[in-house]
Write a structure and sequence with these properties.
The chain is an all-alpha fold. Helices cover 95% and strands 0% of the residues. The chain has 1 helix and no strands.
Length: 42
């Protein structure tokens, strides 16, 4: 049973990490688009 629990914990951790990574990517994308807009205005 312990092996199963460890496996579930690993899955939860990887899911959380992927969610964080996708949020970071989205944030970076929005930041880059804002920078591009500022450069176009200037």
């Amino acid at each position: 049973m312990k092996h199963l629990d460890d496996h579930l914990v690993d899955i939860n951790v990887t899911l959380r990490e992927s969610q964080i990574q996708s949020k970071v990517k989205k944030f970076r994308g929005e930041g880059m688009s804002l920078l591009m807009r500022k450069e176009k205005i200037i």
